[in-house]
Amino acid sequence: MNYRILIILVLLFAEIASAQAQDTIQKVLTLDDAMNLAMENSPDIQKSRLNMEKNEQYLKAQLASLKSQFSLNVTPIQYSNQEKYNDYYSEWYTEKSLSSYGGLVISQPIKQTDGRLVLRNNLTYQDNYSEASDVSYKGFDNNFYLEFTQPLFTYNRTKMSLKRIELSLETSTLSYSIQMLGLERQVTQAFYYIYQKQETVKISSEEYDNQKVSKGIIESKVEAGLSAKEELMQAELNLATSKSSYENSLVDLENEKDQFKLLIGISIFDKISVKADIEYKPVIIDLNKAVENGILQRLELRQQEINIDNAQMDIVESSATNEFRADASVSLGLMGNDEVFMNIYDKTTKSPQLGITFSIPIFDWGQRKARIKAAEIALESTEIDKKREEDNIVLNLRKTYRNLQNLVTQIDIAEKNEENAQLTYEINLERYKNGDLTSMDLNLFQTQLSEKKANLSNALINYKLELLNMKIQSLWDFENNSSFVPKELQENIK
Predict the structure, then answer these.
(1) Where are the domains of the chain?
(2) I need a surface site. Which of 32, 47, 334, 345 has the fewest CB within 10 A?
(3) Which residues are CB-contacts of 396 (< 8 A; sequence separation ≥ 6)?
(4) What is the DSSP string of 136-203?
C-alpha cells in the first residue's frame, strides 16, 4: 500500500514539474512568425476575406444565370364543381371541370443584346361538363412555341449588372489586399516596438550592473577612509534609481507584449520574446522609380478607378429614368388538340405572334434631368478624389524618401555618439576608481551612455520601419530591386 502511495506522489510531482516547465517555455518570434500568426488570426482580415468570398459567390451566381435555365411546372390534378348563373336564360347551372397540366420552359438570356430566347411547351388534359349546354369534353391539347423578346433604345441591363458584380468582387479583393498591407505595417511597427523595449531592458540592465560596480568601488574607498560617506550614500541612491528604471522597463515590456499578443492573435498567457535583425544595410532609393511604380500599382488608385466606373454606370442608369424605349417580341408555335393523346398534332394550328410596345414619356417635371445632373456631379467628385489620391501618394513617397535620407545621417551620428559615450564612460570610470570623480559625476556619464545606446537602437529601428513604409507606399522592394507583391496576396491581386 505504501508503495502505491509513493508512486502516486511521484507521478503527481512529475506532472506539476512538467506543467511548471511548460509555463516557463518562451517562444522566440521572428517578424515572419508574427506576420503569419496575425494573418491567420486577425478578425479584420477574416471578415475581409469572407466579404471577398461572398462576392465571388455572387459572381458565380450571376454567370450561372446567363446560362440556359430549365423549369418544369406540373399540376397533377385540378378539380372544380361550380354553380354559375346564365344571364340569357336567367337560370343557374352546374359546371364541372377536371384537368391536369404541365409546362416545360427553357430560357436563354442573351448577354450581347439583353434579349431573351424562350422555348415553351404546355400540355393539358381536360375533362369538362357544362349543364348549360349538356356537353362534355375529354381530350388533350398541346401548345409548343419559341419566343424572343428584345428591349430597344435602352442600355444593356444584363451587361451592366454583370459588370457591377465584377467590380464589387475586385473592390473586395483590393480591400482585402490593402488590409493585409496595413496589417503588415501595424505588426511590423509593434514587433520593432517590442524589440525596442527589449533593448531598453538590456540597456537598463547594463546600467544597473554598472551602478553595482560603482557602488562596490565607493564602498571599498569609504572603508579605507579614502572617500566620504556622502559618496556612498549618493552611490546607493544611484543604484536604487537604476534598479527602479530597470524594473520599470521590465513592466513596460510585459505590458507591450500583452498588446502585441492580442494583435497577432495568441494567448496573453504565452511567454514570448522577439528576435530581430536591425543591422544597418544602406539601401539605394530611386525616388522617380518609387513614384512611377506607386502611381501604376497602388491599389487605392484602382479603387478610385472602380468608383469612377460605377459613377459612369450611374449616369447611364439615371439616363434611363422615364426613358423612351420599346420592347419587341416575336414567337412561332404549333397548337394541337385531340381526344387521343397520340393524335394531338394530326391537325395543327400555327400560332405566330409579333408585337412591339413603345414607352413614351411626355412630361416628368425635370426628374430625369435632375437625376442625370446629380450622377454627373458624383462622377466629377469621384474624379477629384482620384486626383487627390494620386497627389497624396506622390506627397507621401517624397516625404518617406526625405525621411530615409535623414535617417541615414542620424544613424551615422548615433553610431559615433555611442562610441564616444562608451569611451568617455570607460575613461571616467577609471577616474572614479582613482578618486578623481564623484559618483554623481559618473552617474551623468552612465546616463549619457544609456541614452546614446537607446538613440542608436531607435535610429536603426526607424530606418527599418521607414524602408517598409517605402515598400508599401511604392509597392516596390528596393532592398531586392523587385516588385512588391506579398505572397499572401498573389492569388488575389490580378
Answers:
(1) 22-55+162-310+376-489, 74-110+115-154+325-360
(2) 32
(3) 473
(4) EEEEEEEEEEEEEEEEESS--HHHHHHHHHHHHHHHHHHHHHHHHHHHHHHHHHHHHHHHHHHHHHHH
d(CA 485, CA 279): 24
State the pLDDT confidence band at 3, using cuts at 50, 70 and 90.
low
pLDDT at residue 249 is higher than 80? yes
Rounded Cα–Cα distance for residues 191 and 182 (Å): 14
pTM for the structure as a whole: 0.76
Comparing CA positions, the residue from 31, 47, 51 lying closest to residue 486 is 31
Per residue in 393-404, pLDDT (tens digit) is 999 999 999 999
| Cβ neighbours of residue 93 closer than 8 Å, sequence gap 6 or more | 83, 84, 85, 86, 130, 131, 132
State the Cα–Cα distance between residues 475 and 297, nearest whole angstrom.
Answer: 7
C-alpha distances in Å from residue 219, one per residue of 235, 426, 434:
9, 19, 13
- Residue pair 397/291 in contact (Cβ under 8 Å)? The answer is yes
- When pLDDT is averaged across residues 341-348 and rounded to a whole number, the result is 81
The domain defined by 22-55+162-310+376-489 carries CATH number 1.20.1600.10: yes
